[in-house]
Specification:
With 578 residues, the protein is α/β, with parallel strands linked by helices. The chain contains 21 helices and ten strands. The strands form two sheets. Strands 6-7-8-3-9-10 form a six-stranded mixed β-sheet, with helices on both faces.
Length: 578
Amino acid sequence: MKKGTDASLVKRLWPFAKPVRNLLLLAALLMAAEDLLPFAGPHLLRKIVDGLQEGVPLSAIHTMVILLLSAVAGGAVAGFLRAVTIEYVSARVVHGLRSHLWRHVLSQGMAFFNKRPVGELMTRLNNDVDAVNRLLSEVVLDLTGSVLMIVFGTAYMLMVDWRLALCCLAFLPPMLLATHVFRLQVRESNRKVRQELASLNTSLQENLDGSALVRAFGLRERRAKSFAFHNAALRDTWFQNVSYYSYYFPTLNIMTEFATACLFFVGATLFQSGAASLGTLAAFSWTMGMFFRPLRELSDRITNLQQSLAAAERVFQLSDEHTAIPSGNRTFAGSVQGRVEFRDVVFGYDPAHPVVKSISFTVEPGKTVALVGATGSGKSTLAALLCRFHDPQAGSVSLEGIDLRELSNDDRGKVLGIVPQEPYLFPGSLFENVAMGRDVSRQRVLELLDHVRLGDLVKSLPLGVDTEVGERGARLSTGQRQLLSFARALCHDPSVLILDEATASIDAQSEQALQDVTRQVLGERASVVIAHRLSTIRDASLILVLSHGEIRERGTHDQLMEAQGLYHRLWMLQSGGH
């Protein structure tokens, strides 16, 4: 998305405001009442002062005073109701915007997340969206109100005495020019502030997530310098932002004082000549305060507006990114056996440098295909393609004979189960992390946990499956988190199971227990197993040996050992020559 104009950014918010457009109209009417009623004050003051000079009865003066107070009170009530209404509208708009943005982010492909730091996404979803919350209130509530006060004030002064009005309005063009220059400078400055804030949040997130590594490798000083760099950049950008006030406020103050002096100079001359009444001077004195106060406050309101517009620009830049992998519309007609086929698959995170090259193999129902090879050979990439985190640049990946690009995301998710190399647990209970929001009975979860050798752990916990696992499963050991991840993958009884280094973080005893479990379940479904420990895939139906994105060898363990090729060398290295 290109840098948007103010009008285009506000226009893009309209679809989110449309459901509450009636309340928006009500807020506009209340705002007009709030800005018009105060002008009854100087009008009535003029009549009161002139009436006292002309000997108008005291009862009439009292009546006008009561009307004046009523007008002031009416304006205050209208202002209160308008503020409540517009804040509710703003909350509804931002709620819709945040929901839309979150759904948009969740729909993106893995390439989107690979190129965006978590800290930056958090800044846009939280800080920037919160800043947009002020956009409607700043535009409709404050800024528009200030403009209306200036327009109404101009009209009123011209109506009462055009000569005195010209004295005040002569200073309006230079004040508006200063405001315009200020607006342009602050807009760009606020955009830079948002960028530096995102960088600082990214640095914070990286340091907090990697706090253990920072301590283990003695990186505190280096990471502190990195944080200090981003912190200083934000400080300097913010200082440049606020420095624009150094000329803006003095300019407005000087112009206001000159306008006041000019008013009384001309007003005194007109009063002495009988061309203007004392009530007129009193009314102008009151009106000038109402006229110039919005101009002085306009700077803060424009600052807030520009901050909100800069944030809105970043929000819509994120919304305009489209890396989502579209869902197909085909569904499975009957029961799924789980046949997987890779046919001449080519894929690279950078299309110019393929990670896997012309890969073809088939996983039959009830069979296990193991992928082995050095780091970077393409094993996990094949698993990612089967999960459809990415689409191949050439060839196809099919499930039950249906190309994954044609298959609906829901149907694919129902038949695939994955145990990742690094298990991620959400804050919550053991039950919640296994069920993952699906309609699963507690008995089923207990059976699964017992199945993966976590039954004794559950029995030892005071709250059983309702025990909280902590942030990212911090209350469990690494091996226990991996076993829990295995139970999660089996929860919906998938037809295809993907084990991506599933035993990498498990001790020898737990690994043996997990191997016993996998022997029971792998024979019932098609399975793709990625492993560095070759002992864990000895019984696989087919072993594929990958190197530099290509299949160099394929066969059973015995066949590959007999061939004495790459697999044989890897086995001998891991087994110590046995």
